[in-house]
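Our consortium's second objective concerns turning raw sequence data into structural hypotheses that experimental partners can test. To show how far this objective has progressed, the report includes one record in full. It was chosen at random from the queue rather than selected for favorable results. The single chain below, 322 residues long, was entered without modification.
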Amino acid sequence: MYAPTTSVGVRINREQPPAKLRDLARQAEDAGLDELWLVEDCFWAAGIATVATALAVTSTIKVGIGVLPAVARNPAIAAMELAALAELHPGRLIGGFGHGVASWMRQIGAYPESPLAALEETLLAVRRLLAGERVSMDGKHVQLDEVELVFPPSSPPPLVAGVRRPKSLAVAGATADGTILAEPAPPEYVRTALEGIAAGGAPAHHAVVTYNWLALGDRERARRTVAESLTPGSRVQVEGLPFAGELLALMDSTSTVDELAAGLRPEWIDRLAICGDVGACATSVRALHEAGSGSVVLLPLPEEPPEQGIEDAGRVAAAVRG
């Protein structure tokens, strides 16, 4: 069971070359962070390889895959990979699946007839295989014929779903151990997402992981990165904010990231990222915990040294605990 309540983690962003991964993973563990998350985006470094490396060079920190595109992974092969990692590093792996970015999935010829069915069937199949079951499935996306892992893990890893829209949140609630909410993920969105997750019949221990950009000391450093994260798909993530009407109007009226960034009010950035001094950042993290995010994952700004971002995340985590 994956049920964090006050975890603070950090993400190593996709922009970092694989050669830096070992040192960054060790730094995250030494900084006292609870979790380390890695992404799999096309066509950066692959998720299984990077997570395996991070697990191998650390000893206590939990390492999450956030997330594998379900349509790009045969569930039997994915289960084999996750089972091996879970057995080699018991209690430290968090597996994650998502829809995958539609344009990338089309680019590699993997876009499914039904993204919802593909995610749901993949999560169900992988969970059953990791539990040691023999699985047959004839679904819209997944076809398995008497598949059973030879080496199922003695302690299956939790599976989380990286999703954001209501129907996908319901699938996560019905089939996953937790849900990852992409950046920006303010408390208002956490509460709304929990309602969608509950619609899928989620158990009480369903975990919520939130990603948010970190700008310790100066919110202005996060301005452009926050603007870049305000994509059309992120509308659902900001609709509950008190200034949503003005922000959405700005998003609709600007044609470039630079224009959108210039129009963001300082107080909006404070709600769309974790920023300010250490005390303010810790307060923002606690607000996310109180809203229902058991694991708050801090994202170093992509254009800044990742070592500084991890150090800052460790400082915020210590303040949250203090």
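The partners drew two points from this record. The longest strand covers residues 207-216. The first helix runs from residue 21 to 30. Both points have been shared with the crystallography group to help prioritize constructs.
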